[in-house]
Backbone:
């Protein structure tokens, strides 16, 4: 069997299950997951290496109509990820009735990329099987997909189905990354994303997307086998600050505990994590703040 290697972008509207699928395919929690839209803000590369292939997955932010500069950054980040990839996994939901304006915008970008596209119809556990055929027919009319696969991103049986379909489309080639490497994201970004994931899970709907996380200190204490991490959580309103901290600091403490457990698993070391909450009004439209928090494009 020839060794194959290549880059695979995962694209779709917010909350279709891209990060859930990525974690299923790679078996590692690198992409953050939430049932709230716009969870992923960075294009995160995750590397899966076996004896037959090396697949480099690029999980992109959910594609939506941007209302802030942060939103504009996320859309550009998603479409930029289509350039130069070998395969694109385009995800929709089985509950969709037809291709909406968001889908048409994405399909336009898919055409420009020239890469083969596998359509994944996710969340098939939520619908009757007979509703899938009209949806498949509708998308077949719109675009010439390399393959259309109905899936459930939380079902282990999905993994070999999708990996086999990708393998068929990948070119033969050498490894791009060492075989024990899991992601090309630096540790600070992964830590920020894990802290933000806990905020998404624990906060009410109006607060989470107004939060940003910045790791301001990341120090390894070699003699103690300990990593000390200090992070700022930014929110847009004083009232949000109170919600994030919670009564007697309870919510912030819970965010810290859950994030620390995941960070320790990811880094394989004991972690001492300190969190502070700061108010920066309308930071999602501030070029300076977006730059500070790492939401900046590489020109």
Residues:
């Amino acid at each position: 069997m020839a060794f194959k290697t290549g880059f695979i972008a995962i694209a779709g509207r917010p909350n279709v299950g891209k990060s859930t699928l990525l974690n299923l395919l790679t078996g590692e929690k690198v992409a953050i997951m939430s049932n709230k839209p716009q969870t992923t803000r960075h294009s995160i590369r995750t590397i899966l290496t076996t004896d037959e292939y090396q697949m480099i997955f690029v999980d992109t932010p959910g594609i939506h109509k941007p209302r802030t500069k942060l939103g504009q950054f996320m859309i550009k980040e998603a479409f930029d990820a289509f350039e130069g990839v070998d395969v694109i996994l385009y995800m929709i939901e089985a509950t969709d009735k037809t291709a909406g304006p968001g889908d048409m915008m994405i399909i336009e970008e898919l055409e420009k990329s020239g890469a083969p596209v596998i359509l994944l119809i996710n969340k098939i556990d939520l619908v009757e099987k007979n509703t899938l055929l009209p949806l498949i027919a509708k998308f077949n009319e719109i675009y010439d997909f390399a393959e259309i696969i109905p899936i459930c991103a939380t079902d282990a049986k999905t993994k070999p189905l999708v990996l086999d379909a990708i393998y068929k489309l990948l070119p033969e080639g050498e490894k791009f990354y060492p075989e024990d490497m899991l992601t090309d994201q630096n540790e600070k970004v992964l830590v920020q994303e894990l802290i933000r994931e806990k905020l998404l899970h624990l906060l009410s709907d109006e607060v989470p997307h107004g939060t940003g996380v910045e790791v301001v200190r990341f120090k390894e204490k070699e003699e103690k086998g300990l990593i000390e991490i200090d992070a700022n959580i930014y929110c847009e309103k004083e009232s949000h600050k109170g919600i994030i901290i919670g009564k007697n600091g309870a919510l912030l403490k819970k965010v810290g505990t859950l994030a620390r457990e995941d960070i320790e698993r990811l880094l394989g070391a004991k972690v001492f994590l300190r969190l502070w909450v700061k108010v920066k009004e309308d930071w999602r439209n501030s070029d300076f703040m977006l730059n500070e928090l790492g939401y900046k494009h590489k020109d």
User: Anything to note?
Assistant: Strands lie at 4-12, 44-49, 53-59, 87-93, 117-122, 147-150, 212-221, 226-235, 270-279. The chain has nine helices and nine strands.
